[in-house]
């Protein structure tokens, strides 16, 4: 195997190896928490949606890249190309929007308890699913028109304004379509990254302010309450920092490709690896920083389940004795 293909295969295989189990673990663990505790915190709902879209990114983009690198040819026809490319683009858009929503939500949570922030916190908390659904519908509609440019690879000559995506090509036909799509979607990405950055900056400022205000306090309860709040905020900042770094590298290359008349496949592979790295690496950050996902929490949930079953069995046995 060519060294270039070997490096690409190993790189994408590592993304699959980390991304699929990590995101699946988060989804299943939060599902168990939802069943056991009868509810999920809004932040955990956002993380659950983030893991789902990240899983779809790995499936729709990283796996085809890996299969192509190991020599699998002609995997997708026109219809499958449209499904995979559309799924990837909507999922990637949802990933950036959900991460931005997470940072804004945490920003609202730690804001001062004034009337405006309290009202906004209540509205966001009670309507988190509606907000996520609206974001999803907007992205579904936004990317619907781009499907007309996607088709499977053919022997026919494509225009110079074509993005080559291993099994599929996205041929924008002319420079106007090519540059318009690039600017529109890049602007959308920069908008949400800007929101992440502003929310994270406010979180950092608030944390520093609180640390100064509670310095010297001896109340362990206050310290414990603050530490929980701080840990959640630091976890969000870590996720946002990871996304911004990878986003910066990815979009720097994207802006560079807009100046080229013919983008080489190797450059697309590097961009895809950068764009998908967040989907594979973010589960590591989420699992490491979220107490609900820790191993010890797993045993606590199972203990609670066993206790619940024991109580039900006891109640049933008492009922039988009373009836008899």
Provide a compact summary of the structure.
This protein is mainly alpha-helical and 324 residues long. Helix content is 78%, strand content 3%.
Q: What does this molecule look like?
A:
The chain has 324 residues and is mainly α. It has one domain (3-100, 141-311): Rhodopsin 7-helix transmembrane proteins (Rhopdopsin 7-helix transmembrane proteins, Up-down Bundle). It is 78% helix and 3% strand. It is built from 9 helices and 3 strands, in the order H-H-H-H-H-E-E-E-H-H-H-H. The chain has a 3-stranded antiparallel sheet. A hairpin with a 2-residue loop joins strand 2 and strand 3 (168-171). Helix 2 (42-69) packs antiparallel against helix 3 (78-109), helix 6 (175-214) packs antiparallel against helix 7 (220-257) and helix 7 runs antiparallel to helix 8 (265-289). The longest helix is centred in the middle third of the chain and has 40 residues, at 175-214. It is globular and about 65 Å long. Residues 218-225 and 316-324 have low confidence and may be disordered.
Please tally the helical runs, counting DSSP H or I stretches of 4 or more residues: 9
| Terminal-residue CA separation | 76 Å
The fraction of residues assigned to DSSP E strands is under 5%
CATH architecture: Up-down Bundle
| Low-pLDDT residue spans | 218-225, 316-324
Widest sheet, order of strands: 1-3-2
Order of helices and strands: HHHHHEEEHHHH
């Amino acid at each position: 195997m060519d060294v270039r293909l070997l490096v690409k295969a190993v790189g994408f295989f590592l993304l699959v190896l980390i991304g699929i189990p990590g995101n699946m673990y988060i989804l299943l663990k939060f599902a168990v928490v939802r069943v056991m505790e009868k509810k999920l915190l809004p932040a955990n709902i956002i993380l659950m949606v983030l893991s789902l879209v990240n899983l779809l990114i790995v499936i729709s983009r990283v796996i085809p890249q890996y299969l192509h690198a190991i020599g699998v040819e002609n995997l997708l026809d026109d219809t499958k190309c449209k499904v995979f490319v559309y799924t990837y683009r909507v999922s990637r858009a949802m990933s950036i929007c959900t991460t931005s929503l997470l940072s804004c939500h945490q920003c609202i949570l730690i804001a001062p308890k004034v009337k405006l922030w309290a009202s906004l916190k209540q509205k966001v908390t009670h309507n988190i699913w509606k907000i996520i659904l609206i974001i999803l519908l907007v992205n579904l509609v936004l990317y619907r028109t781009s499907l007309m440019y996607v088709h499977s690879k053919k022997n026919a000559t494509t225009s110079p304004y074509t993005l080559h995506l291993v099994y599929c090509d996205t041929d924008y036909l002319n420079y106007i379509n090519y540059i318009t799509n690039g600017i529109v979607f890049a602007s959308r990405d920069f908008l949400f990254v800007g929101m992440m950055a502003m929310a994270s900056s406010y979180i950092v400022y608030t944390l520093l302010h609180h640390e100064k205000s509670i310095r010297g306090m001896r109340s362990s309860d206050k310290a414990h309450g603050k530490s929980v709040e701080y840990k959640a905020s630091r976890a969000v900042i870590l996720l946002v920092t990871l996304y911004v770094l990878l986003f910066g590298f990815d979009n720097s290359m994207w802006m560079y490709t807009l100046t080229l008349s013919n983008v080489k496949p190797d450059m697309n592979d590097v961009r895809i690896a950068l764009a998908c790295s967040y989907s594979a690496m973010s589960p590591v950050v989420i699992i490491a920083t979220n107490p609900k996902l820790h191993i010890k929490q797993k045993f606590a949930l199972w203990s609670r389940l066993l206790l619940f079953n024991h109580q039900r069995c006891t109640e049933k046995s008492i009922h039988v004795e009373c009836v008899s």
